[in-house]
């Protein structure tokens, strides 16, 4: 009802100082939730981009490889099937690149000492698995390279290797025979991770296939234009492959990265925890303020009830005031959060995560999407604060209410 | 018969004690009556008026407004009876602070859902009758006591009630202002053909009454007709 709404609006600004106090509290809570949400969003987006760049939007492989259940190399995909898969993928305009991967492990010997290395076979020049970008010393792998390798900086330091040096790897072929390869260091890469830099090596795929005595590959890595398409395209491709009788699956980047799942779970838990804590705080403070504000108007409630206002109309009047306070508080909070994130991002603060070698930038994403949940949280916490005092005001005994001062 | 009470009884529980504020009051008033209720402090006048106003319910007995018994009505219907049939004026004026004079008078019509044009006409007419045309846009805190009470009187009449009830309407006003208010009420009683029931312990008010009723110890003891 119009007038009830107007009265609510005017009552909201009746005690300017108190309204300002409530607004400040709601806005601070909302802004804090915004900042955490924005930080989570920005971190996840960074991590996502990194993962997708290296591992593709989705990969096609045998479930045996995905689930680590293979005993040998029975998961390999052979050229005939690879061709079928490529044909299928060519139907999708979303697909921008298809790379092939083949992983192996081998025992590298450096003089008298040896070390287990995890090898990733790549086709130099592919979009995915192109670690040439990461090379900081020497040069990347070229398509015509055969016995060349990229090693991590940690490994280079540890074994005192530099471009041009040669070392040997011992491995077994797919049929179980013993084989030895000789690898010349083409370049040294940096991955900002001690563990990866110490263990990973990149070798051209043709050479690895020769060493393993196979023409099969482990997986296909598919890059799409838009990360949002990953799930949809992966599902369609998988359906197609299975209908052709291939025992292959398509798994998206987030399914493939346990690390991403964990960090996402952790970040979301952090956000939920902080937001719940903040909204409980906002709820109780605003509850106090509104209880006081509404109680002061008990006599007015008695008056309008005596004039024929129904309890639900009184309730509507008070809850409107509370909801509007929540809308204003939520909006100012979103605005404040936005400003905070802009200011924070301008400071260019970096942070070195455990296990990383260089600091990564910390930023707060500011977007309508990020603002939505904190805004709703501010609004809902405030509305809940208003609920109880509104109900109580609506239900006052008229005669008693008229007697209060 | 506009209003009638039968064996109207109100007993308050005050701790262990029972306060018999009204002890079986039988009362009737006709259309256009102007009844003044007298009585000492604590005799039960406010209790009686609260029951007539349908803002309180009796312990026993019944209030009938235009023949309809109100004590069985649900809260919502009771609110409608107050809104449509009763106009109330309080000792302390009780205007809504955030509304202007015009809006305060308009308020009961909005509750009733009267269309805007009709509301405007009615409020303007009443503003003229209580001589507040110039004060229409003022807020209550910009009005004198007498002006506030005139707003309250206009507000009480805006929905064309059958019953106008006032509890010590001049209690917070000086005698000159009181006289003005009583004059206005008298005139409105004649113009609007509404039944006026006014509680007061101010004996000077009695000269305005067509009937004077005395309450003593929760009982209607005498009645003097003019
Ligand atoms: N809510 C209440 N609880 C207990 N006693 C009350 C209450 N309201 C009124 N009374 C008592 O009832 C009696 C009548 O009060 P009231 O109707 O206010 O008298 P009046 O208006 O004539 O001064 C008084 O004794 C008063 O103390
Ligand atoms: Mg009284």
Structure description:
The complex is a heterodimer of chains A (405) and B (226). Chain A is built from 14 helices and twelve strands. Chain A has two domains: 2-51 and 260-403, no CATH class; 63-247, no CATH class. Helix content of chain A is 55%, strand content 19%. Chain A has 405 residues and is of the alpha+beta class. In chain A, β6 and β7 (178-189) form a beta hairpin. The longest helix of chain B has 18 residues, at 175-192. In chain B, the strands form two sheets. Chain B has a six-stranded mixed β-sheet, sandwiched between helices. Chain B has a four-stranded antiparallel β-sheet with strand order 2-1-4-5, with helices on one face. Chain B is globular. In chain B, α3 crosses α4. The mean pLDDT of chain B is 93. The chains are: A alpha+beta (405), B alpha/beta (226). Chains A and B meet through α1, α11 and α14 of A and α2 and α3 of B. The structure holds adenosine-5'-diphosphate and magnesium ion. The site of adenosine-5'-diphosphate has 12 residues of chain B, from β1, β2 and α1.
Structural class of chain A: alpha+beta
What is the radius of gyration of chain A computed over CA atoms, rounded to a whole number of angstroms?
Answer: 31 Å
Alpha-beta content class of chain B = alpha/beta
N to C succession of SSEs of chain B: EEEHEEHEHHHEHEEE
What's the mean pLDDT score of chain B? 93
Shape of chain B: globular
Order of helices and strands of chain A: HHEHHEEEEHEEHEHEHEHHHHEEHH
Number of domains of chain B: 1
CATH superfamily assignment of chain B?
Answer: P-loop containing nucleotide triphosphate hydrolases
Largest interface: A-B, 23 and 28 residues
Tell me the major beta sheet of chain B: 6 strands, mixed
Number of helices of chain B: 6
N- to C-terminal distance of chain B: 19 Å
The tally of helices of chain A reads: 14
The Cα radius of gyration of chain B reads 17 Å
Total beta-strand segments of chain A: 12
CATH class of chain B: Alpha Beta
Number of strands of chain B: 10
Strand content of chain B: 25-35%
Q: Please outline the major beta sheet of chain A.
A: 6 strands, mixed, barrel
């Amino acid at each position: 009802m119009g007038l009830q709404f107007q009265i609510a609006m005017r009552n909201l600004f009746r005690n300017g100082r108190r309204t300002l106090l409530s607004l400040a509290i709601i806005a601070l809570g909302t802004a804090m939730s915004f900042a955490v949400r924005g930080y989570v969003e920005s971190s996840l987006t960074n991590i996502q981009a990194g993962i997708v760049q290296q591992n593709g939007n989705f990969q096609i492989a045998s479930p045996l490889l995905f689930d680590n259940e293979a005993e040998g190399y029975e998961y390999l995909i052979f050229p005939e099937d690879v061709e079928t898969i490529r044909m299928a993928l060519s139907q999708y305009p979303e697909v921008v690149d298809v790379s092939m991967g083949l992983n192996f492990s081998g025992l590298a010997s450096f003089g008298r000492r040896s070390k287990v290395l995890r090898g990733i076979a790549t086709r130099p020049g592919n979009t995915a698995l192109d670690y040439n970008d990461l090379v900081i010393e020497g040069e990347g792998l070229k398509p015509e390279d055969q016995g060349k390798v990229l090693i991590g900086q940690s490994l280079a330091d540890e074994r005192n290797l530099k471009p041009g040096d040669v070392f040997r790897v011992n491995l077994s072929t797919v049929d179980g025979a013993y084989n030895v390869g000789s690898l010349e260091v083409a370049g040294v890469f940096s991955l900002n991770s001690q563990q990866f830099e110490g263990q990973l090596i990149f070798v051209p795929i043709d050479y690895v296939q020769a060493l393993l005595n196979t023409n099969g590959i482990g997986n296909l890595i598919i890059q799409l234009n838009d990360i949002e398409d990953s799930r949809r395209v992966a599902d369609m491709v998988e359906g197609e492959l299975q209908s052709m009788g291939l025992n292959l699956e398509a798994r998206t980047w987030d399914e493939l990265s346990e690390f991403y799942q964990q960090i996402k779970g952790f970040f979301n838990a952090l956000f939920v925890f902080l937001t719940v804590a903040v909204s409980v705080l906002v709820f109780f403070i605003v509850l106090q303020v509104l209880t006081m504000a509404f109680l002061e108007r008990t006599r007015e409630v008695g008056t309008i009830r005596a004039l024929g206002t129904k309890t639900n109309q009184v309730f509507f009047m008070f809850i409107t005031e509370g909801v509007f306070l929540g809308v204003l508080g939520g909006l100012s909070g979103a605005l404040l959060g936005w400003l905070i994130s802009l200011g924070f991002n301008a400071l260019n603060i970096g942070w070195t995560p455990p296990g990383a070698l260089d600091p990564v930038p910390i930023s707060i994403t500011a977007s309508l999407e990020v603002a939505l949940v904190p805004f709703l949280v501010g609004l809902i916490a405030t509305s809940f604060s208003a609920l109880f005092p509104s109900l109580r005001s609506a239900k006052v005994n008229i005669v008693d209410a008229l007697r209060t001062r | 018969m506009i209003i009638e009470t039968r064996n109207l009884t109100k007993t308050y529980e005050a701790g262990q004690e029972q306060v018999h504020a009204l002890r079986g009051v039988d009362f009737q008033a006709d259309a256009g009556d102007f009844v003044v209720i007298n009585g000492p402090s604590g005799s039960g006048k406010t209790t009686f008026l609260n029951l007539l106003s349908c803002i309180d319910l009796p312990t026993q007995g019944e209030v009938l407004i235009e023949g309809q018994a109100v004590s069985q009505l649900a809260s919502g219907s009771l609110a409608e009876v107050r809104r449509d049939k009763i106009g109330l004026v309080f000792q302390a004026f009780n205007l809504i602070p955030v509304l202007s004079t015009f809006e305060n008078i308009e308020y009961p019509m909005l509750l009733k859902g009267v269309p805007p044009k009709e509301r405007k006409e009615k409020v303007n007419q009443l503003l003229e009758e209580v001589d507040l045309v110039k004060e229409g846009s003022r807020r209550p805190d910009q009005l004198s006591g007498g002006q506030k009470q005139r707003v309250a009187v206009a507000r009480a009449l805006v929905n064309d009630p059958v019953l106008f009830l006032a509890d010590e309407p001049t209690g917070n006003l000086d005698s000159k202002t009181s006289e003005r208010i009583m004059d206005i009420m008298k005139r409105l009683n004649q113009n609007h053909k509404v039944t006026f029931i006014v509680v007061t312990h101010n004996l000077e008010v009695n000269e305005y009454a067509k009937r004077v009723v005395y309450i003593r110890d929760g009982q209607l003891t005498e009645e003097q007709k003019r």
